[in-house]
Amino acid sequence: MSGSVNAPAEFVPLIAIHGVGRHVPGNIEQTLRQTIAEHLDFPVAVSEFNWDQFVDHRTVTSPTDALRNLQRICADFHATAMTAIGVRRDGVDAQLARLQRAAAIALRHVIAFTLAALSAIPAVVIVVLLPQALMQVGQPFRVDELGWAAGGLLTAACVVAAALSACMVVLGVARAVAQRSVAPLRSTTTSLVLTLMTPVLALISTPLSVSWAVVGGLVGFFSLFGILVSVIEWLLPDVPAYTAWRDFVIAPYLLAVAGGLLALQTLRHLFARFWYEGPIKVLLDITRYVGDPVYRWRLLSRLDEFIRQQQGTSSTLIVVAHSLGTIIALDYLCNFAKPPGGDVWLVTAGSPFRRFFLRWLPSVLFEPSTADTVAVIGSRWRSFRWLNVYRPFDYIGTSLSLAAAGVGVDQNTREYSRLDGHANYWGDGVVLRTIMDGLPLLPILPRHPVAGASSGRRFIPVSRVAGPTTRAPHFLFLAVTLALFAVGWLVYSFVGHRAEVEAIRTRIDTQGIRRQIRVAHREIPDVSDELATAHEFAFIGDGLTIPPLQLSPTLPFSNAQQEVDYRKLRDYVRGDCLLEHQAKWYEQEKMMTCTSRRAVEIAYLPTSGAPQHYLPAFRSRFYFRDIAGWTLYPLLLLTFISIPALPFVILTSALYAVFLGRDPDEAIAEISN
Questions:
Q1: How far apart are CA 534 and CA 522, in angstroms?
Q2: Residue 235 in contact with residue 165, Cβ under 8 Å?
Q3: How far apart are CA 22 and CA 616, in angstroms?
């Protein structure tokens, strides 16, 4: 390198900046000290700027930590999506950009609401639909109808999302026409891709983030109880006390829940670290730097302090960077306020500057072209040299066309046999030799701006915190809303069934048949309460087949109690009836079938199946003594079943906040001199 530059008397700081992904501090510094530093004609002090230390690598030890990780993913992606659109201060393009931004925010809300609503389905089933079935009110909601509702929600969400995406594309085309450039179309594409990728990444991250042992702890208690019941039924299949569980088919579902929670916890244990230290970290490193202006300002401030400490009295600075580190270096040299000045050498390896930032994030961090960006750097530093090194099959970095723009040199390593083109630049001897061969070729760029630069326009990051403008509903609000909806659904089901019963009775009165029958009564164990008894009425008549009517006295609002006044009918039958046999000493007379001697009038409509019928003299009525059954029992039941539903309600609220992300006040502050 002899004769390429005047050798300074003092040590020149060589600042190494690493790229994205996992990084071992000190490796790059040691490699550069043993290679490039030894081949320079002047003394160099190599030091490494480890920007990864400023990232909050939160260890997932609780559901709160997991949800914060998901929040960070979505927030950074949404912020970068908003930043890609950009909003100018005035003009037609500014109005179109604001409309684009509004459409992007609406799209984000649609995605967040849809995914949160789907995650709330278990809570809806437990709190809303299960009480209706347990209290036997109205027609039970079938599982296939629930699937149809979820499918309808997804279809509607996809239609709305497609409409909003099309709106963003149309606005992007209009902006491209107004600017006479394809840059708005590219930025629109970037914003759409990031917005639509966010829920996908969050959904993949959810099972790897949430501590399912904690979230499913309450559900696991009921699961273990269901497993115990299943074992008892398997060992004692003929014991009638447990047949209610078999008819309810609750135990197998709880067993499936326990197995699912165990599988999710195992999946998280095996793959969570790989996911968060591998693919997701790479994406977050990029989106956080672009979308979070506070983080960007803090990182550049630390870099500025680090450079000033290392530079001392030297007027020369050498920066060697890889991948995202090249963007950090360029951002510092081009945009950050009050640089130390002097002569700058920049060596970039595998830089995404041209392929990604100029193409898909145009005018976000830098000027719209390489020449304009270098012009700004040249106007702020005494001299500037730029060497860019890249591999042929690097999927991130490529040639920056520095020579064509007259602003530097591109060097191809010509490693055509290396397919992993972006990894391990500093451990590759070919790359290091290419750098050493290219340094003597660097031209000294003029201090004055190159023609075509935007007269000192800068993209300076802000230092203030931009608070969220949208908040997800608190889980207590969702819980109360769900409970009110459950009560409303019970009332709706009850009123609907009452109206249906009255319509059937009216039709029977006008078209039906009346005749005399006998009624038999006995008390049986109550399915809803093993300590209580229920009533069973059998209807006996020649040529008339009607299934027995079973009802629980603790459920005054049930379908069965709305068909007949069971107290009046029981007293009528028991007042003069014939027992099936004489009660033994160990038998209770009320548990024995007793058939009335007196006839009872029945009105019915003949049908192919069981006839629709009612007893005109025993219409159902309200008893004040049932007030506890009308109020206290439903409230206790809702409270009890809300316990296993509460984790799903909390998860729904948290996931809505996660998928929603936050709106930055301004991702980038554009200051015109």
A1: 9
A2: no
A3: 80
Task: Using a cut of 0.85, tell me whether the model's pTM lies above it.
Answer: no
> Which is it for strands 316-322 and 529-540: parallel, antiparallel or unpaired?
unpaired
Do residues 340 and 312 lie in contact, with contact meaning Cβ atoms separated by under 8 Å?
A: no
Instruction: Determine contact, residues 261/222, Cβ cutoff 8 Å.
Output: no
- Reading phi first (left if > 0) and then psi (alpha if -120 to 50, else beta), residue 327 is in alpha
User: What is the crossing angle of helices 183-209 and 63-85, to 10°?
Assistant: 180
DSSP characters over 126-188: IIIIHHHHHTT-SSPPPHHHHHHHHHHHHHHHHHHHHHHHHHHHHHHHHHHHHHTSSHHHHHH
Ramachandran quadrant class, 202 (left: phi over 0; alpha: psi -120 to 50; beta: rest): alpha
Which residues lie closer than 8 Å to 606 by C-beta, 6 or more apart?
A: 513
Q: At what angle are helices 627-660 and 475-511 packed, to 10 degrees?
A: 130
Amino acid identity, position 123: A
How does residue 383 score in pLDDT terms, banded at 50, 70 and 90? confident
SS in 3 state form for 451-496? CCCCCCCEEECCCCCCCCCCCCCCHHHHHHHHHHHHHHHHHHHHHH
Interval 318-351: pLDDT, tens = 999 999 999 999 999 988 856 656 788 999 999 9
Asked if residues 397 and 390 have their Cβ atoms less than 8 Å apart, the reply is yes
What does the alpha-carbon distance between residue 299 and residue 324 come to, in Å, rounded to a whole number? 13
The two most distant CA atoms of the chain are separated, in Å, by 125
Helix/strand/coil for 409: strand
293-321 confidence digits (pLDDT tens): 888 888 998 998 898 888 877 788 899 99
Residue 533's closest CA among 520, 542, 541, 524? 524
Task: Count other C-beta atoms under 10 Å from residue 295's C-beta.
Answer: 18
Q: How would you write 515-555 as a 3-class SS string?
A: EEEEEEEEEEEECCEEEEEEEEEEEEECCECCCCEEECCCC
Beta strands 513-526 and 600-605: pairing type?
Answer: antiparallel
Q: How far is CA 226 from the centre of its chain?
A: 30
**Alpha carbon distances (Å) from 122 to 113, 117, 126, 646:** 16, 10, 6, 10
Residue where the block lists tokens 């090249």: 326
Average pLDDT over residues 124-152: 75
- Looking at residue 473, the DSSP 8-state letter turns out to be P
Q: What burial class does residue 499 get, using C-beta atoms within 10 Å of its C-beta: 0-12 exposed, 13-18 middle, 19+ buried?
A: exposed
Backbone angles phi and psi of 550, in degrees to 5: -115, 135
